[in-house]
Structure formats: structure tokens, C-alpha cells
Write a structure and sequence with these properties.
Number of domains: 1
Largest sheet: 8 strands, antiparallel, barrel
Number of helices: 3
Number of strands: 9
Strand order of the largest sheet: 1-2-3-5-6-7-8-9
Distance between the termini: 38 Å
Length: 184
């Protein structure tokens, strides 16, 4: 009996901070990327980004299915999934890190706050550290977050076949936009 009581107490102590943490979530954030190259520009958008922000400690995560990127041309989407990111082998990309430079009270002002986003981005099972500027703003009880960063495909084992080298930029701009709610 003492053992069961102790177990319930320990679980309660461990779970209580999670239950009362101020966490904002979304399942439909947006990540868009843009590649500007001499022959053509390539742009794709993914609106199936799941994300969470703990405003008490700044922990921030997102995860997205790679197959959910929508391209203007179906052939681009096929090449992206089959040849470049191999989404059948590596179905998701993710980010785990922290947002620095804000306090919960800052958000209540409704003003846009400049922050630093720092953490690890994983694409194709390759994890790299990134640090970029971003913004946060509270609107109608939700937190709007955005950031832009640049990745180099080769750093994430994304091989560009020789015949496509002139079509794809060596650096890709990635735009992250989320609307996080504490009521999901």
C-alpha cells in the first residue's frame, strides 16, 4: 500500500508541472520554402505543421510531414519527394529548441516582439543547429510567430542531380508562420 501511495505521489509531482504549463499549440502552421535559381524559381508550401510553444520557458518545437509540401507543378513535387528528400524513407522534418528574448508579460502588450530562435533542425535524419531572428505577437488570445532562415540542401544530405543544379539554388529560404492557441 505504501508503495502504491508513493508511486501516485511521484507521478503527481512529475505530471503537475506539465499540466499547468502555459503551452500554445497548432496543427496547421505553415512552412514555405523558396529557391531562386537562374532557370526557374521553385516555391512550395506545407500547411500541416504541428507546433508547440511553452511560454513559461520558451521551449518551441515543430514537426511536419515532408509529403505535404504543395508545389505549383506536380513534377516538381514528385522530384522533391522521390529524389531530393526521399520522403518515403524520411517522412518528417522537425525542429526542437527555444525562443529567447520574451516574457509572458511582453506578449500581453499585443506589440510585435523580436526574438531569437535557437535549436536543432532535422531533415533526412541529419540534425544541424540553427539560430535565427523571429517575431512573436499576441492577437485575439493566440500567439503569432514567424521566422525566416536559410538552409543549404547539401548540409542535410539533399543531393541535387547534375541535370537540376541550374534549377535549384544552393541556399533555400525557409519561412515559418504559426498561429498558436492555448485552446486546441
Amino acid at each position: 500500500m505504501l508503495r502504491k501511495t508513493l508511486l501516485v505521489f511521484v507521478l503527481g509531482v512529475l505530471i503537475t508541472p506539465v499540466l499547468f504549463a502555459q503551452v500554445y499549440l497548432t496543427r496547421n502552421g505553415t512552412i514555405r520554402f523558396f529557391s531562386e535559381a537562374s532557370l526557374e524559381n521553385i516555391e512550395a508550401t506545407n500547411r500541416q505543421v504541428s507546433s508547440a510553444l511553452n511560454i513559461e520557458n520558451g521551449e518551441f518545437v515543430f514537426r511536419l510531414p515532408m509529403r505535404s509540401f504543395a508545389f505549383e507543378k506536380a513534377l516538381m513535387q514528385e522530384h522533391f519527394n522521390d529524389n531530393f528528400v526521399e520522403s518515403h524513407k524520411y517522412p518528417n522534418a522537425s525542429f526542437e529548441g527555444e525562443i529567447h528574448g520574451f516574457r509572458e508579460a511582453d506578449l500581453l502588450s499585443g506589440e510585435e516582439i523580436e526574438v531569437m530562435v535557437e535549436g536543432e533542425l532535422t531533415i533526412k535524419d541529419v540534425t544541424k543547429g540553427i539560430t535565427e531572428r523571429g517575431t512573436l505577437r499576441m492577437e485575439d488570445g493566440d500567439i503569432l510567430g514567424s521566422a525566416v532562415f536559410v538552409i543549404k540542401p547539401e548540409e542535410y544530405n539533399i543531393r541535387i542531380p547534375t541535370r537540376y543544379v541550374r534549377n535549384i539554388a544552393s541556399e533555400i529560404e525557409v519561412f515559418v508562420d504559426v498561429r498558436l492557441s492555448d485552446k486546441l
